[in-house]
Amino acid sequence: MERNVKLSGGKIFSLGLQHVLAMYAGAILVPLLVGRALNLTGEQLSYLVAIDLLTCGIATLLQVWKNKYLGIGLPVMLGSSFVAITPMIGIGSQYGLNAIYGGIIAAGLVVLVFAGLFGKIIKLFPPVVTGTVVTVIGLSLIPTGIKNMAGGASNPDFGSLPNFLLSFGVLALILIINRFLTGFMRSLAVLIGIIAGTAAAALMGKVSFVSVAEASWFHLPQFFAFGLPEFRIAPILTMMIVCVVIIVESTGVFLALGRVCNQQLAPLDLTRGYRSEGTAIVLGGLFNAFPYNTFAQNVGLVELSRVKTRNVIAVAACILIVLGLVPKIAALATIIPPAVLGGATVVLFGMVVASGIRMMTEVDFKDQRNLMIVACSVSLGVGATVVPELFSGLPSSLRIIVSDGTITGSLSAIFLNLFFHLSSRLRSADSITVSSTNTDTSTVPTGEQA
Fold this sequence. Notes:
By secondary structure, the protein is mainly α. It has helices at about 10-35, 40-65, 85-95, 95-115, 115-120, 125-150, 160-180, 185, 190-205, 210-215, 235-260, 265-285, 295-305, 310-325, 325-330, 340-360, 370-385, 395-400, 405-440, 445-450; strands at about 80, 290-295. Helix content is about 70%, strand content about 0%. The longest helix has about 40 residues, at about 405-440.
């Protein structure tokens, strides 16, 4: 599974930092969006970002540390799930902040208890489904990367020439490093691109250090920072749906990373992975953080860097924990301009798409049914990403499931595979039974048939 190269401590740290920077924007975006939507104070928002980073680190360690009960044992990074943003805002607006965390804790416990049952869903993920799911995940992420390349959707200078130069400069540097350098330096292509891009942005006057100056030096986590959780039926059911959706998404990422690392995953491996995610979700509720899932962009980074050792991810998790405890250091990562981050992440998102396409090389596309599964699932997944208001007329409980392109495409692939292949298997079984019956009857003398 791991690359046969002995890495020094400095190299492992650099590779771990690269993983942190690749997922950092996504990790802090969820608390910022939820906190601002619920009108949290600046102090509460700072806590939310810091505790989110800390819990991301703990959740990642739970997945990397494989034992009898917990851990997928793959080089995966966990971050706060984007699927939970809209439901959390809805619950918080209607029932209050504490009802959010009651729902998260209850949903996490459900994942823990039923992890063994969820582990059996690997049968629903043949190559035509896994390849489609991973491809849709990558395609759903690409619009975010492209918007960041232009400077960020809400940025007043969106699409300006400086943003264009920064993003494509970072992209060009990453490509040049991959073309002309080898070994460790090529593994750090994304990190080098981000650092160089941020330095160039600073010279252009596009970097502000205000957030670093205002951030505190130390921060201690605490249970129920916003008060005791409230357990209400509607929020609990909503968060349970969210967690099931997270499991579907994480399953596709697990299987993709298993292929990258040449590791065949068994139902027991998935069960341990789901237990770790369930534990992380419960911790998110206890610390007033978020539900967590596996980040696909880091799978692209594993593919790009070709370093598959779990030590790198363990170091990345420890970096996140330190960032959560020392907000001033964490704030340094917030100075990276969106255009720089977009130039780097668009490569990673593209690598996710490429991984999905490679997984589908095992699929028999002479079979029209497989073509229909891929065609419909990719179209619906990308469509829901590009036109998120497509399902705006549905009840809120259903919108949670289908408003995210990744989930729409994933569920489409699973159900279409069952529709086409399960029904054909049942017909085959019926024809065998009928054939067997006719054969037996033909051997009976005519007089006895009468």
